[in-house]
What we know:
The protein has helices at 2-24, 26-36, 65-74, 119-134, 151-158, 168-178, 184-192, 197-210, 212-219, 243-251, 260-281, 291-303, 339-343, 348-356, 371-378; strands spanning 41-47, 55-63, 78-85, 93-100, 106-114, 142-145, 163-166, 308-311, 316-321, 324-329, 334-335, 399-400.
Amino acid sequence: MWTLYRAKHRVLDKAENQNCNSYNKLHSYGHIVKERNPGSMAYLQTITPVPGGPTLFQRFFLNFTAQKDGFLYGCRPFIRLDACHLKGKFSRVLMSAVGLDANNGVFPIALCVAEGESKQSWGWFLEQLYLHIGLEETRRVTFMSDRQKGVLDTVVRQWPRATNRFCVRHIIANLQAKYRGPLNGVYVWDATNKSNKREFLEEIEKLKLVNIDAYNYVMGIPLKSWCIHEFDTHVKSEHTTNNISENFNSWVDELRSLPALHMLESIRRKLMKRANKRLESTKKWDGNVPPAVCKKLAKMQDKGRFVTVLCASETKFEVKDELIYYNVDLENYTCDCGFWQVSGIPCKHAMAVINTKRLNSHDFVHKYLTKEYYLKTYSHVINPIPNEFLWPEIEHIEVLPPMKKKMSGRPKKKQKNEQR
């Protein structure tokens, strides 16, 4: 029994030493990242709580050139922000900025290991993101978040041309917490996903009739931040939730208990491997649009079977959907329902016209959703990094692990079950 006890503690002590030492190695890691992947950014920020005292880890920002170029030249100008707590002895979070590729897949742009979610940490992360990517981004970027502390203020300050979207799932959760009602969330969700103002007002009016306070709460949030019909049409994404970022958090879940350095290296390897795998997968594609877009086109084509097309010219049409007429313009890629402009994919009315004219629906998909842009996203390579013992020696001040945070409240006592 005593042998097992000592063996267990030797393993725990070894793991703790690795965790502590990993912070001191981040200087060297940042150097080798920039050496093997020129143009990448690896920035370590430290803190010295007591003048003349030890230097402690605070934050580490990481972005590879391949991820930067993949976003700038292949992805939509749409960035989702989120954070997940890391497991282990020290209280930390992994912040992430995630984009969308042409196949609606997760495309991590930048990472940051920070002391926690706060106005200061989010501000620092978004500042580094702007310095490395924002200065070269000529498009107007849209950020989606859960309205974390510091995100909105920093976006306004660092990205003055950017717009914000809020995760509707979190808006509904806050609404349900404030105002009880079994249908409040249903009405808000249905209204959110309407792509034109008339249908939105019809749905949100149902909420007003059953709960005026809940109605006033959601209508007090800027509509352009959570309603599809008010979204910027240049983004070509109708997403209303932050599920993509949460998918990334699940993707790295098994790595969250590793020491900081090992976790970041494991994520790099996963990114490197997946980029190559996705690039190879395009060889099996038929046509010039990704599989996810093909599925949406097929869905819209199926819905378009129940509408009536009236031809006005070679490019302009009226489409009767039940009792309502929608104008479709093939030349300008627009429909009165609004979905085509927001998503970049022909709506059911446009698909009905395209089928009537016997045209190829792939030709009417926005360029952000094509195979060409998918290849631009993944054609940039994350170069391999050698094993740790081959890294060059870098002179730097010793960096110690972050301070442990004392949790609020009375600490729990460990009680032993006594056998009688």
